[in-house]
Amino acid sequence: MKQSTLVGIVFGVGIATTVAGVAGYSMRDKTDASIVIAQQHCYDVEVDHATEPRDENKIAGTVAGALVGGAVGKDVGDSDLTTAAGAAVGAIAGNKAQEAFQDNRTTTMTERRCDPVR
Q1: I need a surface site. Which of 44, 47, 87, 89 has the fewest CB within 10 A?
Q2: Who contacts 62 (Cβ-Cβ below 8 Å, separation ≥6)?
């Protein structure tokens, strides 16, 4: 191999390495400068969540209402008809009372929310 060819190859590799290094460094600077960190405004909010009922069919309220209604019906009329009517009305009232109680049961939790700053 001729000496001039060898010098040309070494010189070309040196220039190519230098150009690649400068290009890589300049691309790195552009990438770092183009990163923009989005600013956010974060705050805490209290949120109410409905609590799952333990007795979905409202059996406890229905039974308690029927017992109380039956006892009141027996005292009012002292017959089987008034006892049965009192138990039926009491069962309906107990069911509705438990439904209202279960609908109003909530758990308050604190949640963190963030909005972008414009």
Answers
A1: 44
A2: 91, 94, 95, 98
Q: How far apart are CA 50 and CA 29, in angstroms?
A: 52
Please tell me whether residue 16 adopts helix, strand or coil conformation.
helix
As to burial, measured by CB atoms within 10 angstroms (0-12 exposed, 13-18 middle, 19+ buried), residue 111 is: exposed
> Contacts from 69-75 at CB under 8 Å and sequence distance 24+?
69/93, 69/94
CA-based radius of gyration for the chain: 41
> Per-residue pLDDT for 111 more than 50?
yes
Q: What pLDDT digit, counting tens, does each position of 14-50 carry?
A: 888 887 777 776 665 454 445 556 788 899 999 988 8
pLDDT at 67: 93
Where b means 16+ CB within 10 Å and e means fewer, 4-29 reads eeeeeeeeeeeeeeeeeeeeeeeeee
Q: Compute the distance between CA of residue 57 and CA of residue 91 in angstroms, rounded to an integer.
A: 13
